[in-house]
Amino acid sequence: MRSKIIFIVTVCLSPYLCRAQETAAITIGDSSGVTISKYIYGQFAEHLGRGIYDGFYRDGHIRTDIVNALREIKVPDLRWPGGCFADQYHWRDGIGPKEERPKTVNTTWGMVTEDNSFGTNEFMELCKEIGCEPYIAGNVGTGSPQEMKDWITYLNYDHHYHVSLWGVGNESWGCGGNMTPEYYANLYNHFAAFLPDYPGSHLKKVISGANGDDYHWTEVMMKQVGPDNAWGLSLHYYTFPTGKWKPRGSATHFSEQEYVHTLVEAENIDTIIAHHERIMDRYDPQKKLALMIDEWGVWTDVEPGTPGYAMYQQNSLRDALAAATTLNIFNNRADRVRGANLAQAVNVIQSLILTKGDKMIRTPTYWVFDLYKDHQDAKLLPVQVQSPLYNYGKDTVKAVNLSASIKDGLTHVTLVNLDAHQSIRVNAQIKAQGQLSGQILTSKHFTDINTFGHPETVKIVRFTDAKLNNNELTANLPPISVVELTIKP
Ligand code: AHR
What we know:
By secondary structure, the chain is of the alpha/beta class. Helix content is about 25%, strand content about 30%. The protein has helices at about 1-10, 15-20, 65-70, 120-130, 145-160, 180-190, 215-225, 255-285, 315-330, 365-370, and strands at about 20-30, 40-45, 55-60, 60, 75-80, 105, 110-115, 135-140, 165-170, 205-210, 230-240, 290-300, 335-340, 355, 360, 380, 385, 390, 395-400, 400-405, 410-415, 425-430, 435-440, 460, 465-470, 470-475, 480-489. Strands 2-5-8-9-10-11-12-13 form an eight-stranded parallel β-barrel, surrounded by five helices. The radius of gyration is 23 Å and the shape is globular. The relative contact order is 0.15. The model is unreliable at about 1-10 (pLDDT under 50). Alpha-L-arabinofuranose binds near residues 46, 170 and 344.
């Protein structure tokens, strides 16, 4: 008896074990008519570190294992050649017989030799193999309207590649030329005037957009360029786990405090997008111009022993939870957010794929894109959620977030539980009936990673702890998990 009393007292000293199971109350509405653009699931590959060379491209060949992995998650588009590299890239260096291509210096990233063996045709081949659209970032910083026009002519007139997604510069407020917004907007209009729409290849021109919360940049773009002279306006937002550029924090060794803080920083993108949207709405109430978050992701310190410029970082379950939360935010804002590109696909920042020699692993973030691929080009179902809060120190996030969509009669709901300790019961009203199935991505700890020795520590498995009865969907979301539920009528 005495030992039982001691046991109860001991247990209840732990705040997590004493809390009753909490519930998230959710409503999932009818189709809003808004499509979740497949471009939200875009990727990014820059001539940076081992992104292209010894990444996508090894020993003069495109890696089929990477291609196959990206085909499986239905990558819709791939942004290339940068990033900052784009504004120093001269496309003619990367065409013609490889042995005749000039060797240049990658002055943006590490002063490494760029042998230009991966150029325009190799990129187009890569996109063809993946089955995705190319999204090319053109050079405004050290290029000219003529050079950009010639590139488009080479692609869309001479070779009939039908490239449509076209970035006019990258981070023109920073590495793309340290421009003021007024100066860049004039340049954008100048360049855009000479970029041809060849038959069958209507360009979707993307304005180089703001850095995070630089709302003035967006205001000037809307005023001076406006919604009718571009397809999209970009926005770059990175999540730094410490909230600082340096040190950003380790990719693998971090505390619960830093875990929660990373999520707070990641969720901040919702507020930032909302502000940019308000500005865009004033000039473009019909939402003609897409907001394209063409660089986003969790950016940590590099792995020990790797050069800083190469930005090679591991990828944990925390990063997958941040990605899943961010993609839910993008989906729920799909009326304006019609494109996004995770930085970056292979071996750089929040990668989908890591390589070592000829080995390859899929990161936890890769599996999120696998779970979410059903949302691509599906109709958004609006959601409302009353979620328990997950607090740590000064930081608080909503424990549960989600998005939902319908396509070809199938309803897909992606749910995230960010709480590191509590499973949360989800109670959702939904106007769908049928057969329910589920998949889950989770692991024991938020620092868990996939390694070359243990490539499947964090992976997707079947999820069965959910029920659908009379338009009521219930599920128990384990701590630190991403769940996809599918309803087949
Ligand atoms: O993704 C790495 C770099 O981050 C890109 O080159 C640049 O656009 C951004 O600052």
